[in-house]
Structures are given as structure tokens and as C-alpha cells.
Protein 1
Amino acid sequence: MSQKVISFHYKLTNTNGDVLDSSEGKEALAFLTGSNQIISGLEKELVEMETGDKKTVTVASDEAYGPKFDDRIADVPREQFPEDVQVGMMFSTDPQGQSIVTVTNVSDDTVTIDANHPLAGEDLTFDVEVTAVREATADEIDHGHAHGEGGVQH
Ligand SMILES: [Zn+2]
């Protein structure tokens, strides 16, 4: 199947109706199909749409950021953290900054950290509007991402 580059505007809300992210006022986001650049539950819908189409897509957590795993939540001795540690702070646990943990509780002796993706276990709703669809270039397929406006520029 030929790969395409799809550009779209989006507004992401959770089940409470809180807006978590939006492309409003920014460039439309461009992605290369079939390259895991965006969550699978959203890509599945976008590939069926044409330029100008609008849709509200609800993606179950399994097709978004996956379930929340209890074994990724741990209590760590407080002295391993800075004095001013607070709920909501994020720390990376490896030098590359790949794994991020979020502080979810602070007590006198322990700090609870959660290594789940912040959106794990959440059903997500995307209001999307497709602004452009085109064939991917050989370079894009080679790199595994979209180039140009809204994509990777290098
Ligand atoms: Zn590239």
C-alpha cells in the first residue's frame, strides 16, 4: 500500500471534556501513514478521510496510550528527591531522558512515582479536520516521518 502524508488540525479532550492539547493557532500536524507517528486508533480514521473532512473520533485507551499498569507505580524514599519535590513534577530516570516518571504523591518519608504515560488508561476524543492529503516522498518513507510544514524540518 502506498504511504501518504496527511495534515490535520485537532483538539484533544478527555472524558471530562478537558482540552488536553490542540493545534489551534498552530500549523496543522503532518504525519506519514503506516509509521506509528500517531496513535493507531486515530490514524485508522484519518486514512479514510479526505481534505476538508471533519470528524469527532473517540479512541479507547487500548488504541491510544494503553492501560495503566499498577506495577509502574512505586514508592521511593523521599531523600532521593530534591527538597522541593511536589505532586505533578516529572523526572527522567535515565540519562537519555526516555523514561519519564510523574510524582503522584509526597509524604514525609516517601514519594510515589508513576511511570505510566500521563494519558494511559484514558479514553480520548479528537475533533479533527483534514487539511491536506498527498503521496509521501521517497525520503519521507525512508526516514519514517513527514517532512515540510507541520512535519519534521531538516
Ligand atoms: Zn526526515
Protein 2
Amino acid sequence: MKKTNWLAAACLSALLASCQCNEQKCCDESKYPNAVIESIMERRSIRKYQDRIVPRETLQLLAECGVNAPNAMNKQRWQVRIVDNAAYIDGITDVYKKHNPKAAADANFKNMFRNAPAVIFVASNGEGMTEIDCGLLGQNIMLAAQSMGLGTCCLGSATAFMNSNTDAAPYVQQLELPEGYKLLYAIAVGYPDEQPDAKPRDLTKIKFVD
Ligand SMILES: Cc1cc2nc3c(=O)[nH]c(=O)nc-3n(C[C@H](O)[C@H](O)[C@H](O)COP(=O)(O)O)c2cc1C
């Protein structure tokens, strides 16, 4: 099977597995018309994770779902770095704690990536529509994760800290981004240990134009 076909099949089977159904339908058909819509509507930002590692094959699949996102002229102006190394996560968190002692004082604080065991960093090169490309990439990752029973949290503050603090520079260097690329945001990934309610959405922002 071609690699792209394999990836599509894996994504689809993950979606189907998440709702234990035979066709591309979801469990509660009265609520959602299919599994994709269920993943979109049920995804929430997760800030509490189980103490359980995410297999590398799963993280790789999530990243491959990410780079299959639409992107301007298929220029793929993004870089993706997956970190599941506890020494890296704890090390940069120690730097963060030094500069943000209040955040670290929270009894639930485990690390600066909302306590997740793995982080996917997304970097952009500032050219063209790279930020839109990177945003779409991230949403693919987060929805694929949701479909596989994983939780995620999009993080702008963690990378803002890493970009601006000189003590964090060695950790940014370890990501080996090519010349011109800068961290845009990160995605915390792990098995969720909470089920937050959806925050309200303002549907008046949607209007048909007749
Ligand atoms: C660009 C961006 C940056 C974000 N940065 C953070 C962050 O630094 N820390 C955090 O806890 N959540 C962060 N979030 C998550 C949002 O707070 C969250 O998506 C929003 O409150 C809606 O909640 P929901 O994702 O559960 O639907 C970010 C989301 C986006 C899209």
C-alpha cells in the first residue's frame, strides 16, 4: 500500500476505532452525523494528563496527519518537532519555573506544557501564509489526537517564553530548526485525565449573507 494510502487508512481507522462503529458514523448518531464531526465537537483543551507515555508511532501518525493539512501552494512552510523526552521537558520547565515561580507554586503543576508527557512544537518561517499553514497543521493534529482518545492543548505561552528568554535558548537550539524558522506554538499531547466542559461559543458570529 502506498504510504499516503496507509496514512489515510490509519487516520480513518483511528476515527472509526474511537467510536467503535463499522462505518464512518459515530456512536451517538442523534447528536453527530459522523465521527469526524464528533471529534471536532468533542475536542477540548486538556490541561491534566494521565501518567502514561504516548507511543512514538502514535506521535508520528499525528505529525503526519498535521503535514497533510492544506497549505499555501504546497510550500509546506513549517517545521514540526516532537519531544517526548522527560529530561528535555523537565529541563526547560526548570528554566520556566525560575522565571515564573508563581505558576510553579500551583499544586497541580507538573510541567510548562500543561503537564503533558509529550509536546509537538510547530515552527514557521514568516513567509507567505505560513502562519495559516501552521494553524491548519495543528488542527489536523489535535483532531486526529481526539479521534484516538488522546487529549491536546494548543500552547502559545510556552513558545513565547522559549523565544524570548535567553536561558531557554539552548532548548530552542536542540530543536535544530533551519535558518529563518521560529517557534510559533506548541501542542501538548497525552492521555486526558479530565473532561472539561465546552466553553461557550458565540453563534451570532455566524451569518448567512442573502
Ligand atoms: C493560538 C492559541 C494559543 C493558545 N495558548 C494557550 C496557552 O498558552 N495556554 C493554555 O492553557 N491554552 C492555550 N490555548 C487554548 C485556548 O485557551 C482554548 O483553545 C480556548 O480557551 C477554547 O477552549 P477549548 O480548546 O477547550 O475549546 C491556546 C489556543 C490557541 C488557538
